[in-house]
Design a protein that fits this description.
InterPro entries: Beta-grasp_dom_sf, Mopterin_synth/thiamin_S_b, ThiS/MoaD-like. This is ThiS family protein. 20% of the residues lie in helices and 34% in strands. With 83 residues, the protein is α+β, with helices and mostly antiparallel strands. It has a single domain, classed as Beta-grasp domain (Ubiquitin-like (UB roll)), CATH 3.10.20. The chain has a five-stranded mixed β-sheet with strand order 2-1-5-3-4, covered by helices on one side. The longest helix is centred in the middle third of the chain and has 11 residues.
Length: 83
């Protein structure tokens, strides 16, 4: 099975607990949830924030069930609060 590289871009609070440059190698056809699990294992202090963040590829929001078939940039967006 072929592997793909997923470059992680993070914004908001999640950015404070992940390295500024982060790439995840996974099998082609893995879903976004699998990528997030791999990040949580490698960076255990990010687990809670990963559970709450939204995900996007390009300018499209994606679900954790979205399958990845090529090298991609996955954007992690922490929820924001304010008034």
């Amino acid at each position: 099975m072929a592997t793909i590289t997923v470059m992680i871009e993070s914004y908001g609070m999640i950015k404070t607990v992940l390295p500024s440059t982060l790439h995840v190698i996974c099998d082609e056809g893995s879903d976004v949830g699998h990528v997030l699990q791999k990040i949580a294992v490698a960076h255990s202090n990010s687990r809670l924030l990963l559970e709450q963040c939204a995900c996007a590829i390009g300018d499209q929001m994606v679900s954790r069930q979205t399958l990845l078939h090529a090298d991609s940039a996955l954007v992690l967006l922490s929820p924001v609060a304010g008034g």
